[in-house]
Amino acid sequence: MTAATIAPTRLRLGLAALAVGAFSALGTPAYARGPDGIADVAEKVIDAVVNISTSQTVEAKGGGGGSNAMPQLPPGSPFEEFFDDFFKNRKGPGGGSKGGENSPAPRKTNSLGSGFIIDTSGVVVTNNHVIADADEINVILNDGTKIKAELVGVDKKTDLAVLKFKPSKPLVSVKFGDSDKLRLGDWVVAIGNPFSLGGTVTAGIVSAKNRDISSGPYDSYIQTDASINRGNSGGPLFNLDGDVIGVNTLIISPSGGSIGIGFAVPSKTVAGVVDQLRQFGELRRGWLGVRIQSVTDEIAESLNIKPPRGALVAGVDDKGPAKPAGIEPGDVVVKFDGKDVKDPKDLSRVVADTAVGKEVDVVIIRKSQEETKKVTLGRLQDADKVQAAVKTDEPPPEKTVTQKALGLDLAALSKDLRARYKIKDSVKGVVVTNVDANSDAAEKRLSAGDVIVEVAQEAVSSGADIQKRVDQLKKDGKKSVLLLVSNADGELRFVALSVQ
């Protein structure tokens, strides 16, 4: 179980609440313990829940002073405390040596997690982090039978994995329920292998839905107060019908133990990922081919969008599906394939969940008017694109500044300025040569070398153009102006600045 360390200061408040809860529990009526159906659910599904045992060979390197280095154990391993004590507080064999023939040999480490059977042919679902980098994977059934398993496929973005093994006897399987039908306060049951104790049943309620904790691009977790601990990773979260409505994946905890804040990947997401992993051994996600950003209050005011909503298109891939469909930078996507888009995360999730090659209707707002574009989705390539931000010493700003506006020193692009700021020839607009440190522009992280391409969705080529547009917006009573800004490489983003 991955222990997330989100808002650690808030976690301390739980200690005071614990004492209050212990006192008030004395007068708690019997029905508050939960519905009677929990025992029936547990009895029905317990044999479909399995333990996942993995082993990994790690290189033990000699540390400073000759002590053996602690192996890097997979998250949630029940042996973490043991190895921490052994390697940090004691010296293993050969202690005091500095390499050579006395260097520690590679050693094998073990990790335990949970999973569940979805097909009696021997198909198991678990978390990717439970089996990541494992040399050997074993499935341990509820009766203790241990069987070697093979990896079918993984999806790192949702932290899911599918395994397969050959059963030696008939199995019990479980099916997915509809996580979209969950309501806050619904009772749920978690079963798994916390701290390698095996077959442990806990119950609680759905505390929240659609939680985004910034752990991945498609976050939409079910939050529950059912006790989930290290080792529960990959285990199922059931509704009272015995259907899997989530896969237990994350906890927030200062100590590694449950404090009543656990997260499960919803079954709607899991079912789609599992189907593709079983069919293709990989994920084939839809791709729209746009870069998007949030529609802030200032941007919404500039674009006359009320209330603020949708995903603002900051850039369009020349080779992507959105380009031939007529989607442009500055468009705001408010609906995709019949589903409302409240924010960029919504759009990312719904596009990823849509079949490659499907033609969909994309509703955009352009210049205060709604338009519908038909887009045939491409396939998202999962190769991670890492873009390193290289900071260079900036030369002093040009002595002769064409115009000053919005707290910016502005100049028409020239060969000298392109060379100074390494701006590509394809980038057109007005270059920023200096930013007033006390301006709104500085707060929005504009910097020397940025190029203003458009002001209020109109192209500009000089500082005078920008000043003219700003003056007109002030006359019209606008509070902010929307800039389309490019970096030296041509990557675009929208920035709203106050004109007051």
Automatic annotation (TrEMBL):
| GO BP: any one term | proteolysis
Q: Where is this region: Disordered?
A: 90-113
Molecular-function annotations in GO: serine-type endopeptidase activity
User: Which superkingdom does the taxonomy of this entry point to?
Assistant: Bacteria
> Signal sequence span per UniProt?
1-32
Catalytically driven reaction(s): Acts on substrates that are at least partially unfolded. The cleavage site P1 residue is normally between a pair of hydrophobic residues, such as Val-|-Val
Q: What is this protein called?
A: Probable periplasmic serine endoprotease DegP-like
